[in-house]
Design goal:
Length: 212
C-alpha cells in the first residue's frame, strides 16, 4: 500500500515539474518573439501621460509599448528580480500572488520602487493577471507612489479570468493614494496554446482609445 502512495506522489511531483518546464519554455519563447515588436516610444519631453507596466512573458510589455506610441506617453518598465523567466521565477510569482490575497502587505521588491509622477495628468498601469488578480508588482507600485489629482487607468492582459473584487481593491488603493479617477481595461489573450496574435491584441487595445 505504501509503495503505491509513494509511486502516486512521485508521479504527481513529476507532472508538476513537467508543467513548470513547459510553461517556462512557452514564456521564454513568447518573450523572445514579442521583444522585437512595436519599438519603444521615444521619451517625449513634456508628455502628459505615463505608461508604467510590469511584464513577465512580454504580452503586457507589448501592450504598454503600443499604448505609449499611440498616446505619445513616457514609458516606464518595472522589474521584479524574483519573477524572472524560468521555473523558479514562475513558482515564486504564483506563490506571491497567492500570499497577497491573505496578506496584502506582502509586496515584492520592484525597480524602480518610486517614480516622480508629478509631470503627468494620466498614469496607465499595466500588469498581467495572476491567480485572478493583477500581479503583485503593480500592487507594490501603487502602494509606494502617489497619484494626487491624476487619472489612473489599469490595463491587464490575461489568460482566463480576473476577479472583479481584486480590481475594486486596487481601485480603492489608487484612490486612497490620491487618484482623481480610476478606469480598467483588459484584453483576454487566451490560453498559452491558443492565444490572440499580437496584431489581434493591439487591435483590441485600439478600442480603449478615443477615436480621432
Amino acid at each position: 500500500m505504501m509503495n503505491w502512495v509513494f509511486i502516486t506522489l512521485g508521479a504527481l511531483a513529476a507532472a508538476v515539474v513537467v508543467v513548470l518546464l513547459a510553461v517556462s519554455f512557452i514564456e521564454r519563447r513568447q518573450a523572445h518573439e514579442l521583444a522585437g515588436l512595436e519599438a519603444e516610444s521615444q521619451q517625449v519631453a513634456g508628455a502628459a501621460t505615463a505608461v508604467v507596466y510590469f511584464s513577465r512573458s512580454g504580452n503586457t510589455a507589448l501592450a504598454a509599448r503600443y499604448l505609449a506610441n499611440r498616446l505619445g506617453a513616457r514609458i516606464f518598465a518595472l522589474d521584479a528580480l524574483a519573477y524572472r523567466l524560468g521555473p523558479m521565477g514562475l513558482v515564486q510569482a504564483l506563490a506571491d500572488a497567492n500570499a497577497l490575497k491573505r496578506t496584502p502587505e506582502a509586496l515584492p521588491d520592484i525597480v524602480p520602487r518610486i517614480l516622480d509622477l508629478s509631470p503627468f495628468d494620466t498614469v496607465w498601469l499595466g500588469s498581467p493577471v495572476w491567480l485572478y488578480s493583477p500581479a503583485p508588482s503593480i500592487w507594490a507600485f501603487v502602494e509606494h507612489n502617489r497619484f494626487d489629482g491624476k487619472d489612473v487607468v489599469l490595463f491587464n492582459t490575461y489568460n482566463s479570468h480576473f476577479g472583479e473584487e481584486y480590481i475594486a481593491a486596487l481601485k480603492a488603493k489608487a484612490l486612497a493614494r490620491g487618484a482623481r479617477s480610476f478606469t480598467h481595461h483588459h484584453v483576454l489573450r487566451g490560453r498559452m496554446t491558443r492565444q490572440l496574435t499580437p496584431d489581434q491584441m493591439v487591435a483590441t487595445i485600439d478600442d480603449w482609445l478615443p477615436k480621432p
